[in-house]
Amino acid sequence: MNLLEAIALGLVQGFTEFFPVSSSGHLVLAEALLGVNPPGVSFEVMVHLATLFSVLTVYRRRVVQLLVGTLRGKAAELRYVGLLVLGTVPAALAGTALKESISQIFDLPVLAAGALIVTGFVVYSTRWLLRRATQADPGWGGAFAVGVAQAVALIPGISRSGITVTTALFLHTRREAAAEFSFLLSVPAILGASLLELPDLAGSSATVGVPQLAAAALSAFAAGLVAIVLFVRWLRTGSFHRFAYYCWGVAGAYLIYALVSGAA
After folding, report:
1. pTM of the complete model
2. Which residue range is the domain that position 125 belongs to?
């Protein structure tokens, strides 16, 4: 892998991680269409951690407020951190218990394409859900529901950001508050996924050089920043549902290819 390829992959990871189009679904379809081999565990860990820092950078004031407020025992911050912890539980349990089963799904690109179609319908529903948004956070029951949605997003093709934000909106959470909860919820999710890769990282040989890893991480970080800002802006302006057309287009194109080529 050269520097340009590393940068390109980092950009793709950064954008698809936060746009409601499923980064894992794109990975599965790209491997099936192009015969692209995964760049290795070290690469995956680096770009995922880079996107984590994108979230921490955009929401740095909120993160500091939560940390300071929690240390000082402030009720509002303790409550919000509790909502994040509760929302993390379903995906943590599912990711740990079903790691092998989920990894097998990555060998089923048709399933990923079908899941991407589902993501399109989920995202398109925000066209109406935005009108119902009134609450400052999803609440305790809502936080658990968003957490379950995040666990469902372990399936390649189901967008984590798309399904969690849509679930929060369904529970009447305000637009920007829904996005904030979803992105802050991604911090332990991304960190946990990276930690689960550590055993594989320890036993793997280096397939990507340090310069390429650094270039990919920086491009993923930059793309993540842009993606989060645009995500919130489009959610605010009510144009978020248009991502559905992209999901349907990509999934439909692959399914047609699979039928014609006999890969289905």
Report:
1. 0.89
2. 3-261
Residue 105: name the closest of 154, 63, 149, 65 by CA.
154
CB atoms within 10 A of CB 38: 12
Q: What is the pLDDT of residues 23-82, one digit of tens each?
A: 888 888 877 776 666 666 677 888 889 999 999 999 999 999 999 999 999 999 999 999
What total of structural domains would you count in the chain?
1
CA atoms within 13 Å, Cβ hemisphere of 64:
5
What pLDDT, in 10s, does the model give residues 82-118?
999 999 999 999 988 877 777 787 788 999 999 999 9
**Residue 147 CA neighbour count, 13 Å, CB half:** 21
DSSP string covering the chain: --HHHHHHHHHHHHHHHHSTT-HHHHHHHHHHHH-PPP--HHHHHHHHHHHHHHHHHHTHHHHHHHHHHHHTT-HHHHHHHHHHHHHHHHHHHHHHHSHHHHHHHTT-HHHHHHHHHHHHHHHHTHHHHGGG--BSS-HHHHHHHHHHHHHHTTSTTS-HHHHHHHHHHHTTB-HHHHHHHHHHHHHHHHHHHHHHHHHHHHTSPP-S-HHHHHHHHHHHHHHHHHHHHHHHHHHHHT-GGGHHHHHHHHHHHHHHHHHHHT--
